[in-house]
Amino acid sequence: MTTIKSSALVIDRPTDLDLLAAPPGKFSQAGTVDIAVPVYNEHEDLGPNVRRLRDYLDHRFPLEAVVTIVDNGSTDGTWEVATALAAALPGVRALHQDEKGRGRALRNAWLFSSSDIVAYMDVDLSTDLDGLLPLVAPLVSGHSDLAIGSRLARGARVVRGPKREVISRAYNLLLRVVLRSKFSDAQCGFKAVRASCAQALLPHVEDNGWFFDTELLVLAEREGFRTHEVPVDWSDDPDSRVDIVKTALADLRGVWRLLWCSRRKQARRRRQRQEPRVQERT
């Protein structure tokens, strides 16, 4: 049992979170868009980019929004920068977890939020912020349950190296062939989900790392939730910390796990359909 710390109260919860700059009772107010920004050792870029995001939300985004910085087990000064931003900027909050894992960070931020819509974006702001309103608009209107930015959809404008381009296209092709997914870009760091949908799906998402996005989208499709794709303008971050080989191997293990689980469920359903027939014959 660890403690969540807030500016107004102290609550014991079975999590590994430390929370600062939260209002009493709930982490964010209902009726807002809660944008999580997971970070790991980003003390240099965190300040300028969160200020740029907050400025955009204050002056160009028509909906009320809060920014949730999720320190993902950083070992540098990221947490100190995050708490300073939360203290200085209205509408910015700081959340800390000891264990690494982007999926774990998003799960904690989203489940702790009381906003109607939860979202996330990468701290490098590789995706043009003008794509934020088209991302959340289908969720606000009730048209869709999830919305994802896609670098592979028609109309997207992407600047990145050929290696990452080939890997991204190959991975998403694999998802369509093996898991029969219909979305075009699983790993773009620009997504939004209706809170009710997130609360229904997150308890069933097992991965806490980079495969979290893919598993969330696959489960959403299988459960009949509606996913909207938004073509985005996206520029590759040359200072990205992602280990491509390690991430690719973890993704492949995740794909195999989802395929295996799907086949087990199908086999179980076939057995259940056959059991009444066997009982009738006996």
Quick recap:
It is built from eight helices and twelve strands.
Descriptive overview:
The chain has one domain (2-281): Spore Coat Polysaccharide Biosynthesis Protein SpsA, Chain A. The protein is globular and about 70 Å long. It has 282 residues and is an alpha/beta fold. 44% of the residues lie in helices and 21% in strands. The protein has helices spanning 43-60, 78-88, 102-112, 132-141, 162-178, 195-201, 212-222, 244-281; strands at residues 2-5, 10-13, 17-20, 33-39, 65-72, 92-97, 117-121, 146-150, 157-159, 190-194, 227-231, 233-235. Residues 1-28 have low confidence and may be disordered.
Strand content: 15-25%
Number of E-type strands: 12
Global morphology: globular
Query: Biggest sheet, strands in spatial order?
Result: 3-6-5-4-7-10-8-11
CATH superfamily: Spore Coat Polysaccharide Biosynthesis Protein SpsA, Chain A
- Which class do the helix and strand fractions yield? alpha/beta
CATH class: Alpha Beta
Output the helix-strand order. Answer: EEEEHEHEHEHEEHEHHEEH
CATH topology-level fold name: Spore Coat Polysaccharide Biosynthesis Protein SpsA, Chain A
Q: DSSP helix count? A: 8
The share of residues in helices is 40-55%
Measured between the Cα atoms of the first and last residue, the distance is 54 Å
Over all CA atoms, what is the radius of gyration? 20 Å
Average per-residue pLDDT, rounded, comes to 83
Unreliable spans are 1-28
The main pleated sheet reads as: 8 strands, mixed
